[in-house]
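Dissemination and training. As part of the outreach component of the grant, students in the summer workshop were shown how a complex can be specified as a set of sequence lines and then modelled as a single object. The example used during the hands-on session is reproduced here so that future cohorts can follow it. Participants entered these lines:
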Amino acid sequence: MPPSNDSTAVPVEIDRSGRYREVQRKTLVRLLLIYWLPLILITGYFAFQFNAVQIQTNRLRMQSIAENQAQMLNLFLRERVNKLVNLIDDPRFIIPPEREDMKTYFLDLQKNSSAYIDISFFDPSGVQTTYVGPFLSLQGHDYSGEEWYQSLKESHANFIITDDYLGFRQKPHFTIAVSRTFNTQFYVLRATLDPIEIYRHISTGFDSEAIHLSIVNAKGFNQIVSPQKGVLLEASSIIPPRNPATGIAWTTIKGKEIAYAYSWLQEMDWAIIVQWEDQKGFLMFIRTNLTTIFLIALFHLIVFIVIQIRAKKLVNIQWEQDQTQLQLQHAAKLVSVGELAAGIAHEINNPLAIVCSESGLMKDLLDPQFGEKPSEEEMTYHLDNIREAAFRCRDITRNLLDFVRTSDTKFAFYDLHAIIDEVVERWVSRKMALANIEIRKKYFEKMPPIRTDKNRLQQVLLNIITNAKDAVTDRGWITIQTNFQDDQVIISIADSGRGMSPDEMEKIFLPFYTTKEVGKGTGLGLPVSYGIIKNLGGKITVESKRGKGSKFTIVLPQPLIDTKMN
Amino acid sequence: MTEKIRILIVDDEVKFLDSIARRLEMRDFDVSKASNGEDALKLVRQKTFDLALLDLKMPGIDGQQVLRKLKSDHPYIEVIILTGHGSIDSAVECTKLGAIGYLPKPYELDPLIQKLKEAYKERVTKIFEKDVDRMERIQQICMGNSPLGILRALHDLENEGK
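and obtained this result:
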């Protein structure tokens, strides 16, 4: 027995994977554009702004470092000068000083700063008479010809601070010298200082890796410099501008423009230069805003998840709506079948009325009570009318049967592949060869004999294969595949034809719907196939995509109970 | 029987029309045939009918329209619907419009004759009731009116029936 017809079942289930996945993908992309793009733009904008601010802040900081260090060095040098002036002007200072006293003074000075190398006293002739320090060979040297000595002698001021020079000792150092005129005689007290020690003094408290301090003189030679980064008395790559006396300037080193801060000292023609490395914008941004970035990433992740869920939900809603619509259409189809039946019944009633009326009349004519004597021609005329009416009835029922051939299904066991081959060989192979269409068979090897109605199944296969042939234009293929699993025979017929839009797909099982030319298709092939397969207890499903081809799948259950009954 | 019962049959199936007409003629009906609504209405204007057998689905003016027109112009014609396109809805609708009977095609003669009988009885009863009504009114008119007033009222009454 075929299973009873379930009127609420959906005949065509829409394939969720293809069209809906595309909808889901599109929705996702759209939502991402709405949420992510602004987020990324804003983040980028903030990173850029932050970077600019950071660079500006850095420059200001570097300038302030340059100014502070210049100030500090000013004070430092002035203090050194004052110490020496105080010493030589002290009434207790004996001229010329005793060597032991000089030693005491030197130790006193070194307590304040380790930058002192030595201290010495010069008599009016410019000879270094008393020397305390590591270069004892300099004792007794005549300095009257030295540049600094000459300058001090001619100067109005009572002190001088020199640039770095090598001097007699052939080692970079610089001199602070003070003079005193005593009994019209010109005496000089001087100390020499170590630039490396001064560098240590001014660079404490900085990360020397990131910030690079150096001092150049007016001619652009290194005066005080980090031992790792430069050589004393060598020409510096940077000569800061004179005006303004402090600020930010740019220079090009090895084709690369770099910014630096500088500040000229007040006491002398030295400039402090501060260089630093601007970190790359995003790296700095990330390093300084780790928490913010983590929060933004988290936010993005949440947004992404929400979008995913939302997109899925939208697609589900769409799917449900389509399913509902499909069920409604199915219901409408049932109604239309009902209307069709009513219409056919009414059509039959008219010729039937003629049959009854004519036969009744003939009976009356033969009835002696009316006294009629009908001629043979008259009786033949009425008989012809009856025949004609009967033929009218036959035509109507024949049409009806063609539409729903369910009246005489004959079940038996068959070789499915032989059934398919017969259809292909007998009806379609020639046409396919003419149209350059290749038929590919992918048969399931261990197919058991199946119980079905051979003629009906062949009718369905012919319908579907013919449709496939009409959809494939030229040099295409039709694949017929069989499978057997879970007590079900699965026959799928796929083609490389033009495919169908979702709209078309919804209508293909409705009677009288056709996409073929007028006269070429009746619009009954698929509805009839649908009716037959349903009557055989199976179902037909369809997957299709415009331009990609269509695939019809027939599933015929082969329950064991049916086998036993046979 | 001096005068036959006059019946109008309207149906677009000519073969059917001919055979049913013949059978009723053999049973002493005066039968007129019309194969569409226009012809039927034309015939009704030319001749007085007692009964009408009416199909519903016809090209041109359909059965319901013919029925409406018949009952409004000639209230004493009793109409029986004889159709193959029957439904309960159309039966109710036709009854509301004044049809006395509703028979499905194909018909059987005996029930049809039975229905025709009932319809004719209805028509006779209605006419009789109308006559009784008139008698009563004549009596009323004759009581307490001036001779001239009676004359005028009777004249009006006579014209009313035409």
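The interface with chain B takes residues 346, 349-350, 352-358, 360-361, 364, 370, 372, 382, 385, 388-389 of chain A (CB under 8 Å). Students were then asked to discuss how this feature might be tested experimentally.
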